[in-house]
Structure formats: C-alpha cells, structure tokens
Amino acid sequence: MMLAPSKRRGGLSMTAKRTTTTPLPTTGLLLIGMGPGRLSAMSLEAVEAAKAADVRRYEAYTALWPQSELDALEVAVGSVEKVMRPEVEQPDVLFELARTSLVALLVVGDPLQATTHVDLQLQAAEAGIECRVFHGVSITTLVTGAIGLSNYKFGRQTTLTYPYGGWVATS
Fold first, then answer.
1. Is the model more confident about 85 or about 92?
2. What does pTM read for this prediction?
3. What are the angstrom distances between the C-alpha of 147 and each of 94, 117, 128, 138, 168?
C-alpha cells in the first residue's frame, strides 16, 4: 500500500497500487523485524531480505523465538548466528562485515521499537554504511490492540533483557 492522491475529497488515501521494491544493496546492514515469535508472522519482504543477506545475526538478548521456529527460519533463509548485547551496542564487527557484505540483523518484534536499533541505524549512517529497515509486528502493538488500549495513553516503555554470561541488567 502507498499514499496517493485520491479523487475522493481531494486528499491522500491508501491505495492498492503496488510499489516497486528497491533492490537490496550488495553491502550494508539490514535491520529485520522478525515479528512476535514464529516464521509465519514475518513479512515476505523480511524473509526475502534475510535470505538475500550474506551474513545473518539473530539478536537474542531482549526476546527469544522458540528453537523450533529458529530452526524453521534457518531452513527458510540460511544459517543464523546468535549475537548478544555487546555485539549490537558496540557494532564494530557488524560494521566491518557490512562494509564488504550484506549483513542482516534479525530482531524479534520490530527493530525500531528499541532505541538500541535506532542508535545502530544512526551509527551506520555516520560510518557511511547503508542501512535498510524491514519492520515487524511488535508485542506492544499486539497486546495493546488485543485488549483495546491506545499506545498514545502510555508513558515510557522499558525493555528487560535476559541475563547471560554473568551479566545482569541494572536498569
């Protein structure tokens, strides 16, 4: 769907007109939203982008998919390596790879739901690395929609991470 001029009341409206997909770059970073926990909930565009990547990393410190779904994902797109907080917050290795290959960072939910990935996108731009985002369904929108609440009525949100390797979140 896209916004296009509408003959109805002279405004903009959603139309069913298809847009042409911009080809993926040969190098760069793809932030790919995996959705809420199953391969069937990922967009086709996200799956195709992950499949096209030379390197795939699965961020596993704020949310996890069931192992059976990760196995299905690997069958669909190719091998995926798990990364934790340091590799994402200090992205030197990701950026080094992204300078010479197409790197997919697979994130449960929507990648821009968390400030970490917004910052990663900004750092990539500063480093001259092309960054594309493939949005996914977020648990926030799922829960609020399911119980009839409005996101506009909430205060700040906090992400709770899983402890690993002796590291435990303190905030």
1. 92
2. 0.78
3. 38, 27, 42, 15, 31
Report the interhelical angle of 44-52 vs 67-77 (nearest 10°): 70
Return the structure tokens found at 167.
């590291």
Tokens of 86: 């340091």
Instruction: Give the Cα separation of 94 and 99 in Å (integer).
Output: 9
User: In whole angstroms, how far apart are CA 6 and each of 9, 13, 20?
Assistant: 7, 6, 20
Q: For residues 56 and 32, what is the distance between their CA atoms, to the nearest angstrom?
A: 10
User: Which residue ranges form the domains of the chain, and what is each CATH number?
Assistant: 23-153 (3.40.1010.10)
* Residues 117, 125 contacting (CB under 8 angstroms): no
Contacts of 51 (CB under 8 A, 6+ apart): 76, 77, 78
Map residue 134 onto helix, strand or coil. Answer: strand
Would the pLDDT of 41 be above 90?
A: yes
Model confidence pLDDT, tens digit, residues 127-152: 999 999 999 998 888 888 889 887 76
Number of alpha carbons in the 13 Å side-chain half-sphere of residue 155? 1
pLDDT at 11 over 70: no
In angstroms, rounded to a whole number, what is the distance separating the alpha carbons of residues 32 and 47? Answer: 9
